[in-house]
Amino acid sequence: MKRARKGADVAELQLRLAGFRGTVPDGDFGPGIERQVMNFRRDFMGEARPSGVVDRAAMQAIDAALLPGESKRDDLVKCDAIRGRIVESTSAQIGWTASNPKSLEPSDIAPTWVHYDMRSYEPKYLKDEMFCTTLKQLDNRKLIRI
User: Fold this and answer.
1) What percent of the chain has pLDDT above 90?
2) 87-92 average pLDDT score
3) pLDDT (0 to 100) of residue 146
4) What is the mean pLDDT of residues 98-124?
5) What phi and psi values does residue 4 have, to the nearest 5 degrees?
6) What are the phi and psi torsion angles at 143 (to 5°)?
């Protein structure tokens, strides 16, 4: 498979590679899934100069990356369960309806990965001094009082 291909097989590939810079599983092999393939080939297959093409070796590696008997659809179910636990334990919201709470991307956008999203925060909380830009800063960061 390569760029410009469309169909259910591409959507399945997008689900399987969601953890390698996920895209929406729309069945269109565009630049997003091409980047996912390149990231997978680099990070999982160890290729120094990965291509964005899914050949036999890449498909075998993708199949081997899953636990026996599991599919990326199983990951979707697990991610939804994790989102539920985060909402219960941290008062986070799924989506961006309220201002300044912890927000999680919904599963229709992020089917097989979970992360906090910053888009619901007011600009005063998005200033550069609120964020770490290096691992050293992260390791040595003091709590910020607001």
Assistant:
1) 6
2) 83
3) 44
4) 81
5) 90, -10
6) -60, 145
Count of other CB atoms within 10 angstroms of residue 54: 25
Q: DSSP E strands: which ranges in 50-133?
A: 93-94, 103-104, 116-117
- DSSP-derived 3-state class of residue 116: strand
Distance CA 106, CA 138 (A): 27
> 47-51, 108-112, 117-121 — which one is most confidently predicted on average?
47-51
Q: Which residue has the tokens 């590939």?
A: 13
* First and final C-alpha spacing in the chain: 50
User: How do 93-94 and 103-104 pair as beta strands?
Assistant: parallel
Q: Report the alpha-carbon distance of residue 79 to residue 94 in Å, rounded.
A: 12
Cα–Cα nearest to 38, from 46, 30, 50, 47 = 50
Closest by Cα among 101, 93, 109, 89 to 125: 101
